């Protein structure tokens, strides 16, 4: 077998394999979603940078989330859009590995940033008198730096374990982009170590953070129930439920992909769930976390007034 091994120079991304008309329609829809995601997250990031009133821990983490969403979508979507309108769906080996590395790095970092955001909201609602002391700028900087560093370090481990594997061919990746599990299926060697590390990382970066988010929001909801004003409770519940829906979808989809055993239908499910991560989640985050926020709307109004003068 070793005599027949050869180094992969490129992979072919199979995608959804639909009719030409359907793929053109998907190209138009996905292009609109991608453009809206870039504009929305770019606007949020710019507003937070420009408006001094948004220089708070909550918006500090939101700015990081906006950067992650822009980077995460831009890593996967452009190649996916190009494949929808061309018959040549090849991607060179190095860009494929880099796409896998960045996909995992941004996904890991987003998980950890979401935990930091939930902790920030927990302190703000449950310990408002100590908020400025607990959530100092030093603490916020450390949390953000550790999130980015941990995300890229874990992704580097996955990439190094992937690079040690030989690929025999056919080099057809049954996915929309170079997703790590789809690439692993093309390896000629035993991938048990890769799968063990992926499962361990899933527990560390998905399950544990998701549990921490649930604990934070449990305390938040308990504090909300003590609010005397019915209108105040309604607004707080509306905000928390929206946040929990986005967090639940993000973590839930990822756990289904990386913790549910392989099956014959898993490939198509993975593609659909990856669409959510690459297109819908980066679009939902600014809508749920920022654009519905009165402070962000006021900041946008002030910027527009300045520009119109």
Task: Quickly describe the structure.
The chain is mostly helical and 309 residues long. The chain has helices at residues 20-50, 57-84, 93-126, 131-134, 137-163, 180-184, 192-225, 230-259, 266-291, 294-308; strands at residues 10-13, 90-92, 172-173. It has 10 helices and 3 strands; from the N terminus they run βααβαααβααααα.
Strand content: under 5%
Distance between the termini: 73 Å
The gyration radius over C-alpha positions equals 21 Å
Number of helices: 10
As a percent range, the share of helical residues equals over 70%
Strands in their spatial order, largest beta sheet = 2-1-3
Task: Outline the secondary-structure elements.
Layout: E1 10-13, H1 20-50, H2 57-84, E2 90-92, H3 93-126, H4 131-134, H5 137-163, E3 172-173, H6 180-184, H7 192-225, H8 230-259, H9 266-291, H10 294-308
Report what the structure shows.
A 3-stranded mixed β-sheet has the order 2-1-3. Residues 1-5 have low confidence and may be disordered. It has helices spanning 20-50, 57-84, 93-126, 131-134, 137-163, 180-184, 192-225, 230-259, 266-291, 294-308; strands spanning 10-13, 90-92, 172-173. The chain has 10 helices and 3 strands. The protein has 309 residues and is mainly α.
């Amino acid at each position: 077998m070793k005599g027949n091994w050869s180094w992969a120079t490129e992979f072919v991304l199979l995608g959804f394999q639909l009719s030409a008309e359907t793929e053109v329609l998907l190209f138009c829809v996905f292009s609109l979603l991608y453009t809206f995601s870039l504009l929305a997250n770019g606007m949020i990031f710019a507003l937070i940078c420009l408006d001094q009133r948004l220089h708070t821990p909550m918006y500090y983490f939101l700015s990081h989330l906006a950067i992650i969403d822009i980077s995460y979508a831009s890593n996967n979507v452009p190649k996916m859009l190009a494949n929808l309108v061309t018959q040549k769906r090849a991607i060179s080996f190095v860009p494929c590995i880099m796409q896998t590395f960045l996909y995992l790095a941004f996904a890991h970092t987003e998980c950890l940033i979401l935990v930091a955001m939930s902790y920030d909201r927990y302190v703000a609602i449950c310990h408002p008198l100590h908020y400025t002391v607990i959530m100092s700028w030093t603490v916020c900087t450390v949390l953000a730096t550790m999130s980015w560093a941990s995300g890229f370090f874990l992704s580097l481990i996955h990439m190094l374990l992937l690079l040690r594997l030989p690929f025999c061919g056919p080099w057809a990746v049954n996915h929309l982009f170079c997703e790590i599990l789809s690439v692993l299926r093309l390896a000629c060697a035993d991938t048990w170590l890769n799968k063990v590390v992926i499962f361990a990382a899933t527990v560390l970066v998905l399950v544990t953070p998701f549990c921490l988010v649930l604990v934070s929001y449990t305390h938040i909801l308990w504090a909300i129930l003590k609010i005397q004003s019915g209108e105040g409770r309604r607004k707080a519940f509306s905000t928390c439920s929206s946040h929990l829906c986005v967090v639940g979808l993000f973590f839930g989809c990822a756990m289904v992909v990386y913790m549910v055993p392989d099956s014959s239908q898993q490939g198509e499910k993975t593609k659909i769930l990856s669409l959510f991560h690459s297109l819908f989640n980066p679009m939902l985050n600014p809508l749920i976390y920022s654009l519905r926020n009165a402070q962000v709307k006021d900041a946008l109004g002030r910027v527009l007034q300045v520009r119109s003068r």
